[in-house]
Amino acid sequence: MTRRAAFGFATPVFYVADLIAARDFYSHVLGFTVDTCWPDGDPQVLMVDHGDAHLMFVREDDATQRSCRSEVRIETQGVAALHKHLASRVTVEWGPEVYCYGRREFSVRDPNGVSVIFTEETADEPGGEG
Questions:
Q1: What share of the chain is helix, strand, coil (3-state, %, to 5)?
Q2: Is residue 32 part of a domain?
Q3: Residue 108: which of 34, 46, 31 has the closest Cα?
Q4: Residue 55 placed within a domain
Q5: Does the residue 122 lie in any domain?
Q6: Any idea what the Cα angle at residue 95 is, between residues 46 and 110, rounded to 5°?
Q7: By C-alpha distance, which of 50, 47, 54 is closest to 22?
Q8: Minimal CA–CA distance to 9: which of 102, 71, 75?
Q9: Pair 57, 22: CB distance under 8 Å
Q10: What value does the CA radius of gyration of the chain take, rounded to a whole number of Å?
């Protein structure tokens, strides 16, 4: 039997129409650090980091349809506290809620339509306002 290589973390790539709005949202609202915004003046590529979460955005002027169907799930701790912090800064799409699969989650939407879901494991019973 052949041994398969183990994967490390992955970096999702989102094709967005407004790279500057993505940069501002992820850095100023969600607290990501901008790793790359290239080239200066008219950026085409953005990479942001927050702990082990690494996201990449590529500007594509005709990206509206594609990005509005995109989502990224970010594993975190303290979902309730994060929800409280973000609720005054951005519209919460849904949650926080505890789901039957043992996760507490809520979602916000970035300026390009990407759904950003914050999730943590929990032993709490399923239900709203987890």
A1: 20, 40, 40
A2: yes
A3: 31
A4: yes
A5: yes
A6: 20
A7: 47
A8: 75
A9: yes
A10: 16
Domain enclosing residue 88, as ranges: 13-128
Q: Confirm whether 8 is domain-assigned.
A: no
CB 33 within 8 A of CB 57: no
Structure tokens at 126: 């399923």
DSSP state of 64: H
Bridge partners, residue 22, by sequence: none
pTM: 0.83
Dist. CA 92–CA 106, nearest whole Å = 7
Place of tokens 């082990």: 52
Whichever domain contains 40, its CATH number is 3.10.180.10
Q: Residues 16-57: pLDDT tens digits?
A: 989 999 999 999 999 999 999 999 889 999 999 999 999 999
